[in-house]
C-alpha cells in the first residue's frame, strides 16, 4: 500500500422517494487523514397494504327471477310436448337439458340480504366489494359471496389468572361488546375474526392486570379494585388498538370479574379485615380524644370544678378508656375516707 493519501470515490447511491423518483447524491473526495464514515443509504419505506371495504353495486334479483320462471315454464311445456307427441321430437331433449343446466347455474347467483348482514363478493380470489343493502339480488353465478354478520356481539371472556403490578396472583374476566365495521378486513386480514376477538381480549386482560395493582400502593395510584372507570376505558382503548387490523369495532368493554387467586384469597381477606379494624380504631380514638378534651374544657369554662393537671389527666384517661373499650364499663364509686368510719 502506498504512503500517499488515498482518495476514495464514493459511488453515487440512489435514494427512492415517495413518488418513485431517484435522487443522485454524491460524496466528495475523502483523504486518509480525515474521519471516514460510511454513508447512510436510505431504504424505501415498507408499505403496509390493508384490504379496504367498499360498496359494490348489484342488480335486483326480481328481473332475473322472472327470467328463471319463464325458462321453467318453457321446460315444462317442452316436456309436455314430448309426452304427447312421443319420441318423434327427440331433438328437443338436448334443448331441455341445456335450458335446465342454464337455469341451475343462474339460480346459484341469487342471494338475499337482511338488516345488519353483509356479503363479501369475490371473483376467483379477487375482492370485488361488499353488499350491505337489504333485499333480493342476483350476481354473476361464478362470483362467490360470503356472509358476514354485522350485528352486535357480546363476548364474555374466561376468568384467567394474572399477576398484578405488585406480583399478586388475581383472577380477572371481562365482557366485550363488539361488531364488524369493515367486512373486507374481517374476511381477508384474519383467519377467524371471532377467534381473533377471543384471543386478543385475553391478551388485553393480561396486559391491564399486569399494568395496575389490585389495591392502591400509593395514595394517588389507580388500582383495579377502585379505579373502575379508568380501568374500563384503558381496556377499551387497548382492545380498539388490538382489533383494528381485523375490522372490529369495540362498542363497550368492562371488567366483570375481579378477585384474588384462591391460594392467597384467605390471607388477603385477613389483611383487609385487619386494615379495616385499624382504620375503625383510629376513628374511635380520634373521637374519644375530642370528646375528652371538650369535657375538660367545658368543666373549666363553666366553672363547675377546678381541676389540677393530675385530675385532668385522670378524667381524660378514664373517658378515653370508656369510649374506646368494647366491654361493658363498671364504674367504681369513691365515697371518701369518712364514709367508712
Report on this structure.
The chain has 341 residues and is of the alpha+beta class. It has 4 domains: 1-47, no CATH class; 59-149, no CATH class; 153-260, Band 7 domain (Tetrahydropterin Synthase, Chain A, 2-Layer Sandwich), CATH 3.30.479.30; 271-329, no CATH class. The chain has helices at 61-85, 92-107, 183-189, 193-211, 228-243, 262-301, 309-324, and strands spanning 8-16, 22-30, 59-60, 110-113, 117-123, 126-131, 135-138, 144-149, 153-156, 160-163, 169-180, 248-260. Strands 9, 10, 11 and 12 form a 4-stranded antiparallel β-sheet that branches. Helix 1 (61-85) packs antiparallel against helix 2, helix 4 (193-211) packs across helix 5 (228-243) and helix 6 packs antiparallel against helix 7 (309-324). The chain is rod-shaped. The model is unreliable at 1-38, 40-50 and 337-341 (pLDDT under 50).
